[in-house]
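Supplementary Note 2. Why include the ligand at all?

Several targets in our set were suspected to adopt different conformations when bound, so apo predictions alone were not considered sufficient. For every target with a known small-molecule partner we therefore ran a joint prediction. The input for cytidine-5'-monophosphate is given below.
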Amino acid sequence: MAKTPPGSRASWPTDWPTDVTIVERAPAKLNLALHVRARREDGYHELETLFAFVEDGDELRVDVAGEAGFTVTGPFAAGLAGEGGNLVLRAAAAFARDVAPLPPLSIDLVKRLPVASGIGGGSSDAAAMLRVASRIAGIPADDRRVHAVAAALGSDVPACLTGRTALGIGRGEVLRPVSGLAGTPVLLVNPNVAVSTARVFAAWDGVDRGAIPEGDAWSIARDGRNDLAVPAKLIAPVIGEVIDALDRLDGVTVVRMSGSGATCFALFDAGAAREAGAAAIRGAYPGWWCLETVLT
Ligand code: C5P
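The joint prediction is reproduced in token form.
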């Protein structure tokens, strides 16, 4: 697997500026609801999920100059140490192969989100890379070839590519925009336990508990479920403690696990309630990771 991004000076226009640094945010993804409907023949599961995004997350810094390179920095960089074939490099390679050539890129991934935590860090990083690559190549990021590359990289990557609140069906890659909830204060909490998505899906009991609710983002978040919470708690029982701790906070409107866990979130009716909630969680559980942020 490539350890540096693809790219060739020779195949790139000589008038491309060589002093450009592109900074692209890779926001955390939340599944405000996630209904698992069926196991598929291909090993995936048929889903209905409401994707949403927050203001904070990882960041990509891409220098379109000189040498190709890849570094990972930031508080969760160690979580990716020794990992071959980072999704960011795979995204750049797939774009260069299937969409358009890229110049040599020097990429720094600032990893601020916990790894394997149900908030789409890797998927959002890959999607950010595809947005940067599209910009460099002068191709709209909603081009169907870019979407196809995203879907091949992972089920959540197309949603992360758009970065908008959307209903995801199929594997999660078929998207329909949904309005509502922008600006809602949210607290993310992870008990510092990495959980394998494949393991959690495999532990799902196969029972279809019904369709995701109809309506705007608020009614789906309020009335929806996360069907992966029960299997995730079998693998990491501490998730139950996180949910209970968030449920006890004042001013909470929705508490749920995101994706396959272990990160859980609470939506609040006001920013002050979120601040008080975050302070209470940090005081009682100093080892847990907390992020106070806002839905976009
Ligand atoms: O698509 P992605 O590579 O992110 O998925 C990781 C794993 O999660 C898959 O290998 C599969 O085990 C599981 N998964 C699933 N059904 C989905 C999405 C993911 O079973 N809709």
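Residues 44-45, 47, 154-156, 171-172, 197-198, 201 surround cytidine-5'-monophosphate (CB under 6 Å). The domain at 9-177 is CATH 3.30.230.10 (Ribosomal Protein S5; domain 2). Comparable summaries for the other entries are listed in the accompanying table.
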